[in-house]
Amino acid sequence: MNKISYQTLREVGYDGYILENAPIRVLQFGEGNFLRAFVDYFFDLANERGAFCGKCALVQPIATGLTSLINEQEGLYTLYLRGSESGATVDKRRVISSVAKCLNPYELGDYDEILKIAASHDLEYIVSNTTEAGIVYDPACSLEDTPPASFPAKLTQVLLARYNAGGSGVVILSCELIDNNGDELRRCVNKYIELWGLDEDFAKYVNEKCTFATTLVDRIVPGRVRDAEQLKKIEDECGYTDALTDVGEVFGVWVIEGDDALREKLPFSRAGIDAVTVVPDVTPYKKRKVRILNGAHTGTVLAAYLGGFDIVRRCMKNPSVAGFMDKMLKEEILPILPKECEGSREFAEAVRDRFSNPFIDHALLDISLNSVSKWRARNMPSLVEYTEKYGKLPECLTFGFAALLAFYNSEVSELSHDGLHCRRPAGDEYVCRDDRWVLEFFYENRAMKPEELALAAAKNTAMWGRDLSLIPGFVELVTKYLDRIKKAGAVSAMASAIRNF
Question: Residue 313: which residues within 8 A CB-CB, separation 6 or more?
Answer without folding.
Answer: 355, 356, 357, 358, 360, 361, 362
